[in-house]
Design goal:
It comes from Dyadobacter chenhuakuii. By secondary structure, this protein is mainly β. Helix content is 14%, strand content 51%.
């Protein structure tokens, strides 16, 4: 009898977990600081996310040795641009994970990341993926996500 009750509880929990899609929790917008950039110009790629209430998005500026997983940005290499430095999260919040005793940064409601590039060709385009983890502040549920982006 106990086994049946535990199994039923597991099924209910599983349905609830899989009912929530990452795209329902966060919406991404990718833009460039200057649409008229020419070869030789430096511009910023701006990655903005709207995050649902009671959820958080881990930032990109901490090590993932243990505990939360940072957001990663991967860029498709082309000869139309060069990355300058690394991705820069804009004003994330900072805390310490009580379970692992490690510091990490995160965003609630709104997130922004910026990446400088040097344009190598007129009519440049940038593509890649954003991969990360969204976690509920209410029940601790975490959902991995991966978004593709393209800027022409």
């Amino acid at each position: 009898m106990l086994f049946k009750q535990l199994f039923f509880l597991f099924l209910l929990t599983s349905v609830n977990v899989f009912a929530q899609e990452p795209s329902d929790i966060s919406k991404w917008n990718v833009s460039v600081s200057s649409k008229n950039a020419k070869a030789g110009d430096e511009v910023e790629l701006i990655f903005s996310a709207s995050i649902d209430k009671n959820w958080k998005l881990y930032s990109s500026d901490f090590k993932n040795e243990i505990g939360p997983l940072p957001t990663e940005f991967k860029f498709v290499e082309t000869d139309s641009y060069q990355l300058i430095g690394t991705i820069n999260p804009i004003q994330p919040k900072k805390t310490t994970d009580p379970t692992w005793d490690v510091q990490y940064t995160y965003f609630t409601e709104k997130a922004q990341f910026r990446q400088k590039i040097k344009v190598s060709k007129n009519g440049f385009n940038v593509a890649g993926t954003i991969k990360g983890l969204l976690c509920s502040n209410e029940d601790g549920l975490c959902i991995p996500f991966q978004e593709s982006f393209r800027i022409n």
